[in-house]
Amino acid sequence: MRTDDAWLSTLGPEMGRHREAIAAFAQLCADNRAVSSFSVGCSIGRGAGDALSDIDAAVGVSTVRGTAGAADVQDVEAWLLEALPALGEVVDVLRTGSDNNDFVIRQVFVQFSDRLQLDLAVIAEGEVRRGEAAPDFVPVFWREGAPNSTAGRSAHEVSPEQIREWAFLGWRALLDADKYLRRGSVWEAHQRVQDARDRIWMLWAAARGAAYPWHGLSQALDDSPDLLPPNIETTVAGLDAEDLRRAVVAAAQVLADSSAAAGTAWNAKLPSALADHTRRTLMDWPPSAR
C-alpha cells in the first residue's frame, strides 16, 4: 500500500482544502480492502488547479471488469456515500452511471458546504486509465499487487471518423441556426450557434494535438490559451436576429478553417458536400424568391 505524499505536498497554499480532502480520502481508500487505487486528475492532476477547482478523481475497485464485477463496484459506491461526511459537511449528492457487459461505472458528484466539489468515478481497477490514456491522472493511493492498467486509447488520439462527425455536426448546427432565423426563433438559433461553436472547439483541440479533444473548449484552453481558433470571437452574438445572422456566417468560416486543420492533422475525409451546401444556404439571405 502506497500513497503519494510527495505529490500532495506540491499543491500550493491556496489548495489547502483540496489537499486535506484528497489526503483524507486516500486514507479512507487505504482502509477499505475493496479499493485498489485512488487517482486525481484534470486541472489538479496536471498542476493547473486553483482554489475553485473541483476534485476530479477515480476509485479503482478490486474486482473483474463488466457486469460480473458490478456488485463490487456498487458496494464501494455505497461505502463512499457513508464515508463522505468524513471529508466535510455535504450539501447534496448526485449519483449516476451505467452498466453493461463491457463497462460498469458509477459516478458520484458531491457538493460540500465550503464550496469544495468532488466528481468521482468508481470503476473496476482494470478500467482505470493511466499513462497515455490519462496523462493528467495521478495515482494518489494504490494497493500493492493491483494491476497496472493502461486501459483506453491515448488521450490525444482522435479517429478520422470522429473528425468527420464533429465537422458534420457543426455544419448541421449552422443549417439549423439558419432555419430558426428564417422562422424568427432567435432562442433556438442562438442555441444552435453555440452547438456549432462546441464542435469548432473540439476540432481545434484535435488539430492542436490537445489531450481529450472531445472535451472541446476546456482542452483547447488548457493546451494553448493564447492560441485560439482565428476569429472565434466573431461567432458570439446575443439575441438580436441581425447579429445572430452575422455570427452564423462568421461561424461557417471558423468551422471551415478548424475542420481543415483537424482534417489535415488526422487525415480525415471532411463532409465537403454538406459544408458547400451550408455556405450556399447561408448566402441566400434575404431569401430569394421561389
The shape, in one word, is: elongated
Radius of gyration: 22 Å
Q: Remind me, CATH topology of the largest domain?
A: Beta Polymerase, domain 2
What is the highest CATH level, the class of the largest domain? Answer: Alpha Beta
Distance between the termini: 74 Å
Strand order of the largest sheet: 1-7-2-3-6-5-4
Major sheet description: 7 strands, mixed
Averaging pLDDT over every residue, what do you get? 88
Number of helices: 9
State which percent range the strand residues make up: 15-25%
Instruction: Estimate percent helicity.
Output: 40-55%
Number of domains: 2
User: Which stretches of 5+ consecutive residues score pLDDT under 50?
Assistant: none
CATH superfamily of the largest domain: Beta Polymerase, domain 2
Q: At CATH's second level, what is the architecture of the largest domain?
A: 2-Layer Sandwich
How do the SSEs run, as a string of H and E? EHHEHEHEEEEHHHHH
How many strands in all? 7
Protein structure class = alpha+beta
Organism: Leekyejoonella antrihumi
Protein name: Nucleotidyltransferase domain-containing protein
